[in-house]
Amino acid sequence: MRSLKPLFVAAVALALSGCGYNSLQSQDEAVKSAWSEVVNQYQRRADLVPNLVATVKGFAQQEQTVLLGVTEARAKVGSIQVTPELLDDPAALAKFQAAQGELTTALKSLLAVTENYPDLKSNTNFLELQAQLEGTENRIAVARNRYIAAVQQFNTTVRSFPTNLTAMLFKFKVKPNFTVENEAEISRPPAVDFSGVKPQPLPEQKPMMPST
């Protein structure tokens, strides 16, 4: 009997491989990995907000409505518990996406009002934060696209025959995905505009004394 056990294990492994079990497992892990990157990039953006708001506030205290909007949007993002179960809950994923969308809109409004403050736009700290925000938004767009592709591949496998039978047996279910009505508009990062940067004056040239 002991000699038959390795053959039985090999037969089971071959059967599982042939019915798509291994593909479902690997694609499920790919979805989780892609999701982790999405969360990391969104968190990176959230971490930039306090310094960005503080910098803008130092030059434009009268823009309280916009500043408050960004602060509240960030607080809403932080209130959402990002758990593994969120990947399988369409309502929770939609709530997460809506909160991130509100923060995106609030940040765009914040950067729009800075156009009225040339001194702010030439501030070194602000320029650095603005550049970091643009880079983070680009990384968010890339991470989201990878997640969307990973979920699409997984869902296709779950729905396709004969792997749909394996998915049903091992309780692999279709995962919710980002629903973006206008992906190009939402994923467009806030523009970094250096047009308001004041050029530094060149040092005054002293006239050369004629040689005698």
Task: Describe the fold and architecture.
It is a single chain. The chain has helices at residues 5-18, 21-59, 64-79, 90-113, 118-121, 124-159, 163-169, 183-186. With 212 residues, it is an all-alpha fold. It has a single domain (34-186), classed as LemA-like domain (de novo design (two linked rop proteins), Up-down Bundle).
What is the compact description of this entry?
This protein is mainly alpha-helical. It is 68% helix and 0% strand.
Strands, helices and their partners?
Layout: H1 5-18, H2 21-59, H3 64-79, H4 90-113, H5 118-121, H6 124-159, H7 163-169, H8 183-186
Helix pairs in contact: 2-3, 2-6, 3-4
Over all CA atoms, what is the radius of gyration?
Answer: 26 Å
CATH structural fold name:
de novo design (two linked rop proteins)
Give the number of helices: 8
CATH top level is: Mainly Alpha
The CATH superfamily title:
LemA-like domain
CATH architecture: Up-down Bundle
Tell me, briefly, the overall form. elongated
User: Helicity range of the residues?
Assistant: 55-70%
Mean pLDDT: 82
Distance between the termini: 113 Å
The tally of strands reads 0
The run of helices and strands is: HHHHHHHH
Largest sheet: none
